[in-house]
């Protein structure tokens, strides 16, 4: 019985091999061989098995690819829904702001209305000393109120005429003393002098501690609300910078997003008139990056394109600014370390996904050191990171030591010092 089962298995294996062989091409048989000739396959049995294994591998990859395409399709649908929702919320917020700005100040009730209310309350709550009923008292009160309103209206009209005449007289006297061109020059000179002092004070507060940064933000915000310098480019990018400072100071996530978003809106208004300001493009890129820290992978990748675009504009407008090269170096370093999922998402969203190498990042960081040696501890730390990633540990240790020589003045410097200690422990191992 065992012999019969073994023979059956061999026969089944032979049939399977035979069925595979039937699908494969066979060598042609010469005509002289006759009808009894047997066609021999082009591939050996081992080669046939290898081909079948390869076909199975291809089918498996096709199945996995189909799953990835389905996942990407779903993510794109979610992305489209998010974009529609954001646009709708933005339009609703714009409409609310428009309604609020239509009447920015509350109207105060005039004295005549107040007197009418007082009369009504007194007559309705007190005992009537006259023979008439309360309705008569209420009517008398309104009559007195109407008389007061007419009297006050006439008085106000007279005061308005007097004040207008006074203004016209003063204007004629001033025009006799100073002509119109000289008046504009004086006003512009005073405005420029006040703006220069304000910007100098804002720069000083920006370089201080958290309390001074808050004070600088409030100073610029108050002057913006006073509509003194709201259309000046140097004022607007400093106001956006102050929003970025508040983002760094604040711990609450919603407040951080609000400061970054408001700062972006200030610069979007500024671009209508100051598109050639390198600082406007630079701080717009910074605020985009800060806001992207709280977004999804798709939005972070989209923001990365915007970041790169505005940093390139800032460098083109002001090529001697080391801060722009530092920001570009950070972008290149981050792109060079994108993960598999981020690269897949970028390829699905854009025809040309962002590309950059560690060498690109290193060149930008070295450019910062060339323009401003010792610009910051972070720059030298990233130079060390680039050399470490490229396998040059000796150069990495050199730049780590150079970074440690710089003083710790800011919160970013403290974080950089901690990263340097971790790098030393890794290289020491």
UniProtKB/TrEMBL annotation:
Coiled coil: 55-82
Gene Ontology CC: mitochondrial outer membrane; nucleus; spindle pole
InterPro entries cross-referenced by the UniProt entry: RMD1-3_a_helical_rpt, TPR-like_helical_dom_sf
Membrane topology: Single-pass membrane protein
Keyword vocabulary terms for this entry: Coiled coil, Cytoplasm, Cytoskeleton, Membrane, Mitochondrion, Mitochondrion outer membrane, Nucleus, Transmembrane, Transmembrane helix
Pfam families assigned: RMD1-3
Region (Disordered): 1-29, 103-165, 410-429
Bias kind Acidic residues: ranges: 153-163
Top-level taxon of the source organism: Eukaryota
Protein name (record): Regulator of microtubule dynamics protein 3
Organism: Gallus gallus
